[in-house]
């Protein structure tokens, strides 16, 4: 694997993270890049203070490099690797200080007492099963109450390729063990459990096979599946269940498979750091996010969960649609009612054969020279004209009453009901409506010129249209009354809806800002993952 190319990818990620204002994660990414360049395998020993980590490491190395008590530094993580004998302490105030690992390790404690900040401790020592490219990390106990120790352990795990998690025989099923190991497995770390001090086991209380079975079941209950479990005793090397040699063999096997393990581990670690960076980025935006979210709580809309963006958007779209419908409602109602009136008038037949005959007789009486008899001709002529006029009017009144007036009033009464308008005064006015058919109406439609059968038919048509025109005029006046009442109704509804609409728009705007923030976070993640993908393709 080309570890140099891989390291350059991590450096590119670190630079991008730094551009985003992250002051923590870029440093970890650069540490990972440095480790990647050296293709160094880090095997971290974790567990409680009482689990015997330091003693186990000293035993595995065959030399007592680690003090019996933990080093009280802010870092408190010691890295041991193969190579030329040296101990280096990296401090903030005094630079790098070198010690003799055989005789001067206890001096590390003095630096902490003097107030100097120790960042890290590295020990290289020849003659162990470690080489220059493999190391063991001794971390603080996970039961430490010192926050700095917890940070140090987290930092060590960030660079760890394999974790050896040690537990005291009597404290295997402590909840902290399950939580910690599950976190490790969720991060994709190979985890090997070591149950130490099995010499405490009393066989007559519980046979050892049953004890091992209970351990495996306990971790499986937490959905934790370790890569291996070893049962060890350093106090009784000859204990029949002691798997110390198997553990040591496993470590040697891991070191032999170093490059493959490191290649997989650093890619997984880089991916985890991307998520860590996103969390840092989100934390930086948290105050803004909380401010916007508090605005969501300040706006209360009846029957709506204002924190549900989809529900808010749906309610807004519905309210906008209702508002738009209300804005159009009066004109649409006017158009609909006028159309109904037009259909009614168009379908109303007012002239029949009897009407045509009465019209022909009436028109004949209005011709110049029309005369009845010889004696008293003037009087008889006027009486005949009057009779024929009344006959036509009577016919028309009959047809209008049966074919138009009844249906007209029925329609006018129904119009407001369609919009839930109740108005007794309006209904009374409709009922009292009378369209007078007068002699003047008949005379008004007579045209000069020769009269023929076609003329008579046209005259009847003109009469019908004239009557309908009057009904239209009256009908439009009634429609205008309904529209006016409807406009008042719409105005009241609009005022109530507008208040809700304003609230929904305010909520939607806040959700839009929150969504933009989330999209920005996702965009950052995708950009970093695109860079990470280049590393994933390195082989």
UniProtKB/TrEMBL annotation:
Molecular functions per Gene Ontology: GTP binding; GTPase activity
Domain Dynamin N-terminal span(s) in chain numbering: 43-196
CDD domains: DLP_2
InterPro entries per UniProt: Dynamin_N (IPR045063), Mitofusin_fam (IPR027094), P-loop_NTPase (IPR027417)
Protein's cellular compartments: Membrane
Primary subcellular site in the record, as a coarse category: membrane
Gene3D superfamilies: P-loop containing nucleotide triphosphate hydrolases
Cellular component GO terms held in the UniProt record: membrane
Tree of life domain: Bacteria
Keyword terms, alphabetized: Coiled coil, GTP-binding, Hydrolase, Membrane, Nucleotide-binding
Coiled-coil parts of chain: 309-336
A Pfam match: Dynamin_N
Gene Ontology terms describing biological process: mitochondrial fusion
Alphabetical list of PANTHER family matching this protein: SARCALUMENIN, TRANSMEMBRANE GTPASE FZO1
Name the record gives this protein: Dynamin family protein
Naturally occurring in which organism (per UniProt): Brevibacillus nitrificans
């Amino acid at each position: 694997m080309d570890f140099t190319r891989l390291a350059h990818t991590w450096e590119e990620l670190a630079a991008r993270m730094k551009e985003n204002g992250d002051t923590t994660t870029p440093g970890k990414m650069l540490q990972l890049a440095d480790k990647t360049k050296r293709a160094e395998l880090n095997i971290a020993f974790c567990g409680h203070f009482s689990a015997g980590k330091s003693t186990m490491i000293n035993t595995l190395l065959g030399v007592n490099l680690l003090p019996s008590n933990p080093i009280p530094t802010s870092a408190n993580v010691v890295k041991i690797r193969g190579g030329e004998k040296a101990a280096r302490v990296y401090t903030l105030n005094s630079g790098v200080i070198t010690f003799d690992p055989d005789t001067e390790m206890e001096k590390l404690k003095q630096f902490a007492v003097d107030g100097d900040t120790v960042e890290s401790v590295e020990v290289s020592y020849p003659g162990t099963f470690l080489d220059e490219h493999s190391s063991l990390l001794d971390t603080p106990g996970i039961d430490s109450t010192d926050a700095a120790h917890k940070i140090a352990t987290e930092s060590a795990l960030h660079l760890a390729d394999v974790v050896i998690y040690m537990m005291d025989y009597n404290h295997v099923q402590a909840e902290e063990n399950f939580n910690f190991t599950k976190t490790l497995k969720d991060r994709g770390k190979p985890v090997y459990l070591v149950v130490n001090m099995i010499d405490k086991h009393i066989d007559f209380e519980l046979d050892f096979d049953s004890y091992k079975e209970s351990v495996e079941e306990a971790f499986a209950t937490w959905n934790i599946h370790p890569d291996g479990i070893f049962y060890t005793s350093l106090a009784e090397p000859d204990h029949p269940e002691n798997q110390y040699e198997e553990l040591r063999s496993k470590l040697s096997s891991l070191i032999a498979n170093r490059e493959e393990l490191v290649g997989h581990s650093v890619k997984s670690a880089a991916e985890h750091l991307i998520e860590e960076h996103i969390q840092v980025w989100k934390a930086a935006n948290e105050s803004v996010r909380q401010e916007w979210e508090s605005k969501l709580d300040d706006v209360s809309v009846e029957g709506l969960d204002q924190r549900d963006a989809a529900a808010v958007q749906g309610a807004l779209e519905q309210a906008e649609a209702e508002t738009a419908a209300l804005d159009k409602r009066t004109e649409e109602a006017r158009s609909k009612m006028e159309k109904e009136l037009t259909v009614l008038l168009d379908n109303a037949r007012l002239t029949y054969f009897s009407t045509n005959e009465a019209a022909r007789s009436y028109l004949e009486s209005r011709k110049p020279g029309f005369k009845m008899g010889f004696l008293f001709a003037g009087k008889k002529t006027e009486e005949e004209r009057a009779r024929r006029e009344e006959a036509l009017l009577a016919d028309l009144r009959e047809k209008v009453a049966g074919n138009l007036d009844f249906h007209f009033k029925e329609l006018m009464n129904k119009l407001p009901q369609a919009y839930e308008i109740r108005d007794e005064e309006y209904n009374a006015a409709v009922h009292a409506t009378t369209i007078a058919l007068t002699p003047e109406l008949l005379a008004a439609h007579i045209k000069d010129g020769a009269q023929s059968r076609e003329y008579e038919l046209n005259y009847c048509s003109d009469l019908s249209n004239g009557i309908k025109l009057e009904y239209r005029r009256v009908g439009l006046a009634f429609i205008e009354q309904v529209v006016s009442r409807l406009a008042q109704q719409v105005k009241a509804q609009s005022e109530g809806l507008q208040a809700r609409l304003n609230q929904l728009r305010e909520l939607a705007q806040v959700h839009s800002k929150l969504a933009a923030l989330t999209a920005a976070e996702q965009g950052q993640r995708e950009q970093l993952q695109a860079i990470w993908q280049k590393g994933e393709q390195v082989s």
